[in-house]
Amino acid sequence: MSVDPDCLFCKIVAGEIPCERLYEDDEILAFRDINPQAPFHALLIPKIHLATLNDLEPEHAGMVGRLFLVARLLAKEHDLPGYRVVINTNPEGGQVIYHVHMHLLGGRQMKAGLG
Ligand code: AMP
Ligand code: ZN
User: Fold this and answer.
1) Is 101 a known active-site residue?
2) Distance CA 38, CA 83 (A)
3) 56-86 pLDDT, tens digit each
4) Alpha carbon distance 82, 106 (integer Å)
5) Is residue 112 part of a domain?
6) Which bound ligand lies closest to the C-alpha atom of 94?
7) Which structural domain range is residue 35 located in?
8) Which end of the chain offers a freer environment for a tag, N or C, measured as fewer CB atoms within 10 Å?
């Protein structure tokens, strides 16, 4: 399924729900998180609907690699000398929205480690 009509992030991709767009190309969209956990907090998503990291197939490897390149680009554009990327997966991983997304956080000192 490349689009799930009930998915919030698919609606954002379709322009049905507004967002503050930071980056867009044919396969990736990045926008500001509505509830930022850092001075800079973006979400980077594939435009196709993939619910979790567990739904990725080898054919998605290029797109996943390009997500990291977009993270790097946004960090540069927004003058982030350091940053953190996170992909929450499934309820135990803290995932709330079931459309794969990479959090890009920066603009404050992150604690070392993940505890
Ligand atoms: P996760 O817990 O990894 O599934 O993260 C979901 C993220 O989506 C949270 O950080 C929310 O603040 C964010 N979020 C939810 N709704 C929106 C929205 N309409 N626009 C931007 N970010 C959103
Ligand atoms: Zn979706």
Assistant:
1) yes
2) 10
3) 999 999 999 999 999 999 999 999 999 999 9
4) 7
5) no
6) 1
7) 8-106
8) C
Q: Which residues contact 109 (CB under 8 A, 6 or more apart)?
A: none
Ligand 1 nearest-atom number relative to CA 98: 4
pTM above 0.85, yes or no: yes
Q: Which atom of ligand 1 is nearest to the CA of 32?
A: 21
Q: How far apart are CA 38 and CA 110, in angstroms?
A: 9
Check if 96 has its Cβ closer than 6 Å to any atom of ligand 1.
Answer: yes
Domain membership of residue 80 (yes or no) is: yes
Tokens of residue 105, six digits: 């956080």
- Could you tell me if the CB of 33 is within 6 A of ligand 1? yes
Q: Tell me, what CATH number does 25's domain have?
A: 3.30.428.10
Phi, psi of 41 (to 5 degrees): -145, 105
